[in-house]
Design a protein that fits this description.
The chain has 529 residues and is mostly beta strands. It has no helices and 50 strands. The strands form 8 sheets. The protein has a 12-stranded mixed sheet, with no helix packed on it. An 11-stranded parallel sheet has the order 1-5-8-11-14-17-20-23-26-29-32, with no helix packed on it.
C-alpha cells in the first residue's frame, strides 16, 4: 500500500519481482471491491519502475484482482512486466485487470503508463476510468489470450470520462469466438474530451480500435489479421456516436471482416472523416450504417485506397447520401456500380457520391496509410467498348474522345494519353468531355450527361441526351449536401440543354444531381473565382 509520493525502482523486470500473496486484504471500491497487488491511493506522483508484478494466478480467492491499482492517484508506471492476474485456471469470471486506475474525487490526477509488458490476465490488460484522470498510454506491449470462447477480453480501455492518448503500443490477440460480445484491442468508451489514438499496431483483435460515445483522432495505426481461428468476423476500426477523424490508417483483413465502420443507433449522432486510409483484403472496406430512423450519421470518405474487397469496397446502408469521392478502388476504371458499367475495381453501394474517383493508385511514401502521389481525382463513368460491336470486354478497351472522334483504347494505355484525349465518347456537338481538368461526363445505357464549360467562372450548360422522356429534375448541391437550387421540367423528350447559373455561389466544387426516367446521377462542377 502506497499513500504518499515516492518512487519504487527495481533492477529490471524478471530481476525484481513483486508476487501476490494468497490473500489481498486491501481494496478500493468502484462498482465493486478492487484488490491490487500494488495499491496506490490519494497521492499525486508515485513512480513504479523496472520490476515484475506477478499475480501468481491468485484470482480465485481475490475477486476483482488487479496487478497495479491507482485510486485517486497519479504518477508513472514504466518498464514493468505485469502478468498472471487471473484465476487458476483462467475462466469466464469478469475480473482480473493488469493495471486499473480510477480518479473521480474532484482532484485531477495524471498518469503515465509507458513501455510495460502486460500479459496473462483474465479480463483486461488495462482500465483507465474517471472524470479526474488524464492518462498517457505509450509504447506498451499487450498480449491477450487469443481466440477464446469463455471471456471477452480487452487490451487498452479508456472510459468513463478519462482524458488522454493511446500511442505507439503493440496489442495482440483479442477475440471472443462466440461473437455475442466483442473483444477489443483498444476500447475508448464515454471518454472525456478528444482522445488521440495514434501509431499503434493491433494484430488479430476482433475489433482493433473501437470508439463508443467518444470523439477524437484515430491516425497512423496498423491493424492486421492473419490468425483469427474460428472467429466469424472482425472489424479494424469501428466508431459509434461521436466525432472522429480516421486518417492514415492501414487495415489488412486476411480475407474477411470490415476495415472501417461508422455506426449510429437510436438518437445518436456520428460524424466521421475517413481520409488517406489503406484497407485491403476484407469482406467490406468501409461501412456507414445508420441503424435506426432516429440515428444521424455523416461521413466523408476521400483519398482512401480500397482494394481486394471480397463483397464490396464501400457500403452505405442509407438513407443519407455520403461523400465518397476521390478514392482508389484498384482500377483506373473505378468501382463496380450500375451507374459505372465499365468499372472493374472494388464495388460500391447506392447512397454514395463516388464520382470522381482516383485513376492512379500510386503511393511512393513510406508513411502509414495511403499517400496518393498522383492527385488524379478525375475518374468518371468509363464505357467499355470494342471496335466491332461496342460490347466485347475481352480486350479491356475503353472509349476516349480524340479531336472530335470516339476511339477505343486499351485500358492500360489511358494514362499515357495527352491533354487532347478525354474519357468517354465524344459528346454532342458543342460539348466537352473529360480531360485532365476533370470535366464531367456520364454515359450509361444510352444516356449522356455533360456539363460545359467546366470549370466555369459563372455559368455553364447541362446537356442531357437520353432515350428517356417525361420529367427531368435538376438540383445543385453544396459539397456538404445542402440543396442550393432546384428545377423541374415535365416536357423532356430525350434531349435538353439546361442553363446552370453559379455566379451567385462562392468559388469551389458543387454537385449537380440529375433525375430523368428511372435514373439518378450526380456530376461535379467547379466554380472559379
Amino acid at each position: 500500500e502506497i499513500s504518499k509520493n515516492l518512487s519504487i525502482v527495481g533492477a529490471g523486470s524478471g530481476s525484481t519481482n513483486v508476487i501476490s500473496p494468497a490473500s489481498l486484504p486491501l481494496y478500493f471500491t468502484t462498482s465493486g471491491p478492487n484488490r491490487p497487488v500494488i495499491y496506490v491511493h490519494n497521492s499525486s506522483n508515485v513512480i513504479i519502475k523496472s520490476l515484475t508484478v506477478d499475480g501468481a494466478g491468485q484470482g480465485n480467492l481475490n475477486y476483482r484482482m488487479n496487478g497495479i491499482g491507482y485510486d485517486d492517484a497519479g504518477g508513472t508506471i514504466q518498464d514493468c512486466e505485469i502478468k498472471n492476474i487471473r484465476n487458476t485456471p483462467i475462466d469466464g469470471l469478469q475480473d482480473g485487470i493488469g493495471i486499473f486506475a480510477n480518479a473521480e474525487n474532484g482532484t485531477g490526477r495524471t498518469l503515465l503508463v509507458v513501455h510495460n509488458n502486460i500479459h496473462d490476465f483474465q479480463k483486461n490488460a488495462t482500465v483507465f476510468a474517471g472524470n479526474d484522470l488524464t492518462v498517457t498510454v505509450d509504447a506498451n506491449t499487450i498480449t491477450g489470450a487469443g481466440n477464446i470462447n469463455f471471456i471477452a477480453q480487452n487490451g487498452i480501455q479508456l472510459s468513463d470520462g478519462t482524458k488522454g492518448s493511446i500511442t505507439n503500443n503493440t496489442v495482440n490477440g483479442f477475440s471472443y469466438t462466440p461473437n455475442t460480445f466483442v473483444s477489443c484491442g483498444i476500447l475508448v468508451y464515454s471518454a472525456g474530451g478528444a482522445t488521440l489514438c495514434a501509431n499503434n499496431t493491433v494484430n488479430n483483435s476482433q475489433v482493433g480500435i473501437y470508439y463508443i460515445s467518444s470523439s477524437g483522432s484515430i491516425t497512423g495505426n496498423k491493424i492486421n489479421y492473419n490468425a483469427m481461428g474460428t472467429t466469424p468476423t472482425w472489424y479494424g476500426i469501428d466508431v459509434d456516436d461521436g466525432t472522429t477523424m480516421i486518417n492514415n490508417n492501414e487495415v489488412n483483413g486476411g480475407g474477411k471482416g470490415t476495415g472501417i465502420e461508422a455506426d449510429a443507433y437510436n438518437g445518436e449522432t456520428t460524424n466521421t472523416s475517413m481520409q488517406n486510409n489503406k484497407v485491403n483484403n476484407l469482406d467490406t472496406g468501409l461501412v456507414v450504417w445508420a441503424q435506426s430512423i432516429n440515428a444521424n450519421i455523416t461521413s466523408t470518405m476521400n483519398y482512401n485506397s480500397i482494394t481486394g474487397s471480397i463483397f464490396i469496397g464501400i457500403y452505405n446502408y442509407g438513407p443519407t447520401t455520403q461523400d465518397a469521392t476521390c478514392n482508389w478502388y484498384g482500377s483506373l476504371t473505378g468501382p463496380k456500380h450500375i451507374s459505372n458499367p465499365g468499372g472493374t475495381g472494388d464495388a460500391v453501394s447506392d447512397y454514395l457520391i463516388f464520382k470522381p474517383w482516383l485513376t492512379d493508385g500510386s503511393d511512393n511514401s513510406t508513411a502509414t496509410g495511403f499517400q496518393n502521389s498522383s492527385g488524379a481525382c478525375n475518374g468518371f463513368a468509363y464505357t467499355i467498348c470494342d471496335p466491332k460491336n461496342g460490347k466485347d470486354k475481352k480486350d479491356n478497351k475503353v472509349m476516349m474522345c480524340h479531336n472530335g472522334k470516339t476511339e477505343c483504347v486499351n485500358e492500360k494505355d489511358v494514362p499515357k494519353k495527352g491533354n487532347n484525349w478525354s474519357m468517354g465518347p465524344c459528346p454532342p456537338s458543342g460539348g466537352e468531355s473529360i480531360g485532365a481538368t476533370g470535366i464531367n461526363s456520364e454515359y450509361s445505357n444510352g444516356a449522356e450527361l455533360n456539363i460545359y464549360p467546366n470549370p466555369t467562372a459563372s455559368k455553364a450548360t447541362l446537356i442531357v441526351n437520353s432515350k428517356a422522356e417525361g420529367t427531368i429534375k435538376v438540383n445543385i448541391l453544396s459539397i456538404t449536401g445542402e440543396v442550393l437550387f432546384s428545377m423541374e421540367r415535365n416536357d423532356y423528350t430525350g434531349f435538353a440543354e439546361i442553363p446552370l447559373d453559379l455566379s451567385k455561389y462562392a468559388a469551389g466544387m458543387y454537385f449537380v444531381q440529375v433525375s430523368y426516367g428511372d435514373k439518378l446521377q450526380t456530376l461535379k462542377v467547379q466554380r472559379l473565382n
